[in-house]
Amino acid sequence: MSDSKQDKGEQRKHWVRIPDGTMVRHRQEGLEGYIDGLTEIVEGLDRNPDGRTQYRIKVGDTSRKLAVEDDLLILTDANGLVLILKQKVEYRGVVSTQLHGTFGADRFVKSK
Predict the structure, then answer these.
(1) Which residues contact 109 (CB under 8 A, 6 or more apart)?
(2) Torsion of CA 25, 42, 99, 92, to 10 degrees
(3) For 88, what's the count of Cα atoms within 13 Å in the CB-facing half-sphere?
(4) 60-75 pLDDT, tens per residue?
(5) What is the pLDDT averaged over residues 45-50?
């Protein structure tokens, strides 16, 4: 197996997907919304570490934006727990621990 194929396999194996419903803010555009799934991309350069997808971010009643995880900040509450729609504090705590183990502290911001 070539090194590039092996590297891509390793990336997919260790990639931690941000769960659906997680509240995020786009770094450059400042838009806030929540993750509403993944879209497989067949063209373009920007993709998630799996090499195939981008996140769908619901930013309005009917509006969605595609973004890769490097463009996203994860929103937290005043206690530092990740904000996730319709989830109990216990689940949010587990996801917060998982995501804090994956992303640097600069990727988490308190919700306005």
Answers:
(1) 25, 73, 74, 75, 76
(2) 70
(3) 2
(4) 888 899 999 999 999 9
(5) 88
Tokens of 102: 């994956």
Question: How distant, in Å, are the alpha carbons of 8, 75, 82 from that of 24?
Answer: 26, 5, 9
Tokens at residue 41, please? 């991309």
Indicate whether this model's pTM tops 0.90.
no
What is the SS3 assignment for 102? helix
Sequence-separated (6 or more) residues with CB below 8 Å from residue 15: 48, 49, 50
Res. 7 pLDDT band, cuts 50 70 90: very low
| Longest Cα separation, the chain | 48
